[in-house]
Amino acid sequence: MSEEERNWQEQMKDKVIDVRNEAIMQGASLYLLARRVLLAGLGAVALTAEEAQAFVDKLVERGEIAEADAQKLIEDFRERMKKSESQVQQAGGEGAKQIENILEDQIGAVLNRMNVPSKREIDQLSKQIEALSAKIDALHRGD
Q1: CA dist., res. 96 & res. 35, Å (int)
Q2: What counts of helices (H) and strands (E) characterise the chain?
Q3: I need a surface site. Which of 82, 108, 111, 119 has the fewest CB within 10 A?
Q4: What is the reported pLDDT for 128?
Q5: Nearest CA-CA partner of 39 in 6, 85, 5
């Protein structure tokens, strides 16, 4: 393999690594943003539960509802909140997979626009280069 071919291969490898690293950084930023949104939602759920408890306590103090009814109301509220929380977490997991798929598509499109060959294309070119190098070596030996 000639020096020029090796340099070209190294440049392509460096370009692929740079693009991959940039994609990883973008994916990490998107992941952190999604995580913050999810945590903010869970924080709002906790705050809402505290507010509901305070509201029911006030109703009991005023005599507008009985203590037993208040406990039942709070238990029902907590059950609904648990269901909502599990749905949010499940949606978050599905969302993460969707985000991953979107990122893969976008990275592929960026690489394509930059004319960066895929791993498969690089492997094919490497095989062709090896085959040509072998033929050149054979010609030099006089085979």
Answers
A1: 10
A2: 3, 0
A3: 119
A4: 92
A5: 85
Confidence bin at 134 (pLDDT 50/70/90): very high
Question: Please, what is the end-to-end C-alpha distance for the chain in angstroms?
Answer: 18
Q: How far is CA 20 from CA 16, 33, 34, 73, in A?
A: 6, 20, 21, 52
**Residue 58 amino acid letter:** K
Angle at 23 between CA 20 and CA 25, to 5 degrees: 115
- d(CA 51, CA 116) in angstroms, rounded, equals 55
Per-residue pLDDT of 54-93, as tens digits, reads: 777 887 788 877 888 778 877 777 777 777 667 666 666 6
For residue 47, the surrounding DSSP H or E stretch is: helix 3-62
Q: Are the C-beta atoms of residues 42 and 85 closer than 8 Å to each other?
A: yes
Q: Which of 13, 11, 12, 5 is nearest to 136 (CA)?
A: 5
**pTM beyond 0.70:** no
